[in-house]
Design goal:
By secondary structure, this protein is α+β, with helices and mostly antiparallel strands. It contains 15 helices and 16 strands.
């Protein structure tokens, strides 16, 4: 039987994990210094959470969720995005009654979407995301965007900019929706079948459609920015002011609406032009009503999500070198049972000193051990046999230069020789 991974799923191999760990370590350091603390939510949630939070007319809910009935006859869903689960946690644990703002991030969060796999977007992929609760000022939006810029610049990404828009709030959006609906109804024959159903349910979602004919129709549609109430307009002006102060390049793009129903006011996508095309690295926005809609206190909030696989793919395509799997500092080759026992003890003593040491596990010949050490990329090799045990001295061979240096048979001495 030859069992393979499911379509759209991917193994992360030992040779790849060092890249993930480097990026994760960088994320944790940047989040910590910006006052964000890690949270972890279950991969499985009640389906109602996403129906209410994400929106029944979204592509995620209509097409992409892994939903099934469990043994308790409950409808449950593998989480298709990160924010709704964090908001559920925020409400369930009464975090709204703690001092605000509360700044959180999640990392290596598995996300499941039943869609055709794409480059950097698999049916199971992983997200890094930030959520900031309890801050209504636009400076919170700017801080989230600034964190993305800091992370990407630290990783070596250049030519960054952020596309921003405001989609209004529950006070001003109904007026806009009415105008948008009126415009789209006059061109309904040109819309795809899905957008025709959206026309009465949620016309704003039509602006997010990737169908070329729908995009052509939407090019001349009314813009949300022309219908903002005073509060939303002031908030958007404030965001631009803060981005200017932080020297963050931004573009006002009225066609960004994001594909989730919970967004209000700010929506944004961070892009890089380094590859010659504007590909979104991450996206996010403000969701001031979601906490109260899920049963919590009235709490403004803003955040973003970033696909880890897509980020790694982008860094590799840009030629940015990421750390590889750590090579063995010293491989201990041995001859005979007594020498093997000594090499095991020595390896553990070296590891205690912070030296990456390995020894023979499979009973290879001395020649085969040297071949294995070379293929495994060991930086140094020492040999222990009867003579070395008797004299308590060894020769340390540098595998790159081929030079050999004699030193005492002790972990401390070997560590000192390696570090010279």
């Amino acid at each position: 039987m030859n069992i393979k991974t499911l379509k759209g799923m991917k193994d992360i191999l030992p040779s790849e994990s060092a890249k993930w760990q480097y990026i994760e370590d960088t994320i944790r350091k940047i989040c910590a210094k910006n006052g964000f603390f890690e949270v972890r939510t279950p991969v499985l949630e009640h389906s109602e959470l996403f129906l209410r939070g994400v929106g029944e007319t979204t592509d995620i809910v209509q097409k992409e969720m892994y939903t099934f009935t469990d043994k308790g006859q409950r409808s449950v869903t593998l989480k298709p995005e990160g924010t709704a689960g964090v908001v559920r946690m925020f409400c369930e644990h009464n975090l709204g009654f703690e001092p605000q703002p509360i700044k959180m991030y999640y990392l290596y969060s598995p996300i499941f979407r039943y869609e055709n796999p794409q480059a950097g977007r698999l049916r199971e992929h992983h997200q890094f995301g930030v959520e900031l609760f309890g801050a209504k000022l636009a400076v919170a939006d700017a801080e989230c965007i600034a964190l993305v810029f800091e992370l990407l610049r630290t990783l070596g990404v250049k030519n960054l900019s952020v596309s921003i828009n405001s989609i209004g709030c529950k006070r001003c959006r109904p007026t806009y929706n009415a105008k948008l609906k009126e415009y789209l109804q006059s061109r309904a024959d040109c819309l795809c079948e899905i957008c025709k159903t959206r026309l009465n349910q949620n016309p704003l979602r039509i602006l997010d459609c990737k169908n070329p004919e729908c995009k052509s129709v939407c090019a001349e549609a009314p813009k949300t920015l022309d219908f903002l109430c005073e509060e939303c307009d002031s908030h958007f002006t404030g965001l631009k002011t803060y981005l200017d102060a932080l020297e963050i390049n931004y573009i006002v793009n009225p066609f960004i609406v994001r594909g989730l129903d919970y967004y209000t006011k700010t929506v944004f996508e961070v892009v890089s032009n380094a590859l010659g095309s504007q590909d979104a690295v991450c996206g996010g926005g403000r969701y001031d009503d979601l906490v109260s809609e899920l049963g919590g206190p009235d709490t403004p909030a803003v955040g973003f999500g970033m696909g880890m696989e897509r980020l790694i793919m982008m860094l590799e395509n840009m030629g940015i070198e990421l750390p590889e799997q750590k090579k063995t500092d010293v491989y201990i080759a041995s001859m005979g049972n007594a020498a093997l026992l000594s090499s095991v003890k020595l390896a553990y003593e070296l590891r205690d000193l912070g030296v990456y040491a390995e020894f023979d596990h499979v009973g290879r010949s001395l020649k085969a051990q040297f071949k294995y050490a070379d293929k495994a990329g060991a930086k140094n090799v020492i040999t222990i046999g009867e003579n070395e045990l008797e004299s308590k001295t060894i020769k340390l061979k540098n595998m790159q230069s081929g030079t050999e240096t004699e030193c005492g048979l002790s972990a401390q001495k070997i560590k000192e020789m390696i570090e010279k």
